[in-house]
């Protein structure tokens, strides 16, 4: 039964890693990256390394995730807005 849990954990890690890399939406990529960090912390717990799991959860998912979300919000506010032109070309 433990091998099934470990297999699902590995599959979830691979899926979230691929989803974070291939996502075209930056916000979605950061959220998936945070989910990857949480899953990685669970993997470290399964490997009986609680100190590394705590560091991964705090730094990998927590601090890095917050910093990346802040960076995405700054990018979104700096992006120029495309205005629609009325009528034909001038």
TrEMBL record:
Subcellular location: Cell membrane
Record key words, sorted: Cell membrane, Membrane, Transmembrane, Transmembrane helix
Gene3D superfamilies, per database record: NADH-ubiquinone/plastoquinone oxidoreductase chain 6, subunit NuoJ
Coiled-coil regions, chain positions: none
GO cellular component: plasma membrane
Keyword Transport: no
Membrane-spanning parts: 6-22, 29-47, 53-76
Mode of membrane association: Multi-pass membrane protein
Domain MrpA C-terminal/MbhD: 12-75
Protein's name in the database: DUF4040 domain-containing protein
Organism: Marinobacter panjinensis
Lineage, highest ranks first: Bacteria, Pseudomonadati, Pseudomonadota, Gammaproteobacteria, Pseudomonadales
């Amino acid at each position: 039964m433990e091998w099934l849990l470990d297999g699902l954990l590995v599959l979830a890690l691979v899926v979230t890693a691929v989803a974070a890399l291939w996502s075209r939406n930056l916000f979605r990529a950061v959220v998936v990256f945070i989910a990857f960090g949480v899953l990685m912390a669970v993997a470290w717990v399964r490997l009986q390394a609680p100190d590394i799991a705590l560091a991964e959860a705090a730094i990998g998912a927590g601090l890095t995730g917050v910093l990346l979300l802040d960076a995405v919000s700054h990018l979104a506010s700096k992006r120029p807005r495309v205005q629609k032109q009325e009528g034909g070309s001038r």
